[in-house]
Amino acid sequence: MSDRSTFSTLAAVVLALGLLFAGWNIGQGLVKIKTQDRYVTVKGSAERIVDADLLVWPLPHTVGGNDLAGVQRALSANTAAIRKFFLDAGFKPEEIVVSPPRLEDRWAYAFGENRAPERFRYANTVILRTNDVPRALQAMRNSGQLVAGGVMLDQGAMPEFDYTKLNDIKPALIAEATANARESADQFAKDSGSKLGGIRTANQGVVAISDRDQGSPQVKKVRVVTTVEYFLRD
Question: Which of 3.40.190.10, 3.40.50.1460, 3.30.870.10, 3.30.70.2970 is the CATH number of 54-162?
C-alpha cells in the first residue's frame, strides 16, 4: 500500500471518528435542551386572619344659617363637642385632628326664587387617628351621644381600618405559600412519572389585605400567592 493510500485511509478514519463524536455531542445537547424545556408551573397560597391595628375615623359635620357669625359659633361648638367626646372616651389630644373649615355662600350665584332658604353652609371634619382599635369600636357604639347633643353628623364618611404590621408576618406567609407550591409540584411530578428538579423561576406575586367580611372591617385577611416553575426530570 502506498503512503498516499495509507494517509487517505487514516484521514477517512479520523474524519469518521470526528463526525461520530460531534454527533454524540449534538445529541447530548439536544437531550439536555429537551430536558430543560420540561417544567411545571404551580401556585401556592397562604392566609392569616389578623386584627386591624390602625383606625382613621372622620366625622364631618355641617351647620347652616343666614347669619355668618352665628354659623361660625355653631360650627365651633359642634367641633368642641366632638373633641370632648373623643377625649372623654380616653383618646389623646394628638390623636384628634380638625380639618380647616369650609364656608359656602349659597346666595353668591343664585337670585330670586332660586335662592336656598339658608345662605351659609359651614363645615369641617374632626378626624380620629388611633392604634387603640378596641377603644375606638366602643366609641363608635356610643356615637349616638353626639346626635343626641345636637351635633348633626354628615353621612357617607366611614371609618377606615388598616393593618400595619405586614412585614412581621410576610416572611412566614411566603415560606408557607412556597411550601404549598412545592407540594403541588411534587404531586404533579408523581402523577406524570417524573422527578421534580430545581426552581426555574419564582414570583412572589401580590400580598393582599382585605376585610374578613362586610360585618367586621376591623378583622383583616392577609393573603399571599406565589407562582413557581420547577424543572421536571425523567
Answer: 3.30.70.2970
| Amino acid letter, 156 | G
**Contact 146/153 with Cβ under 8 angstroms?**
yes
pTM comes to 0.75
Has residue 25 got a pLDDT over 50? no
For 38-52+163-234, CATH gives: 3.30.110.170
Residues contacting residue 219 through CB under 8 Å, at least 6 positions apart: 49, 50, 51, 52, 211, 212, 213
**With contact defined as beta carbons under 8 Å apart, do 226 and 42 qualify?**
no
Q: Mind listing the pLDDT tens digit for each residue in 49-89? A: 999 999 999 999 999 999 999 999 999 999 999 999 999 99
Query: Which three three-digit cell numbers place residue 127?
Result: 378626624
Q: Which amino acid, one-letter code, is at 32?
A: K
From the list 147, 175, 140, the residue with the least C-alpha distance to 44 is: 175
* Residue 86 to residue 95: CA distance in whole angstroms: 9
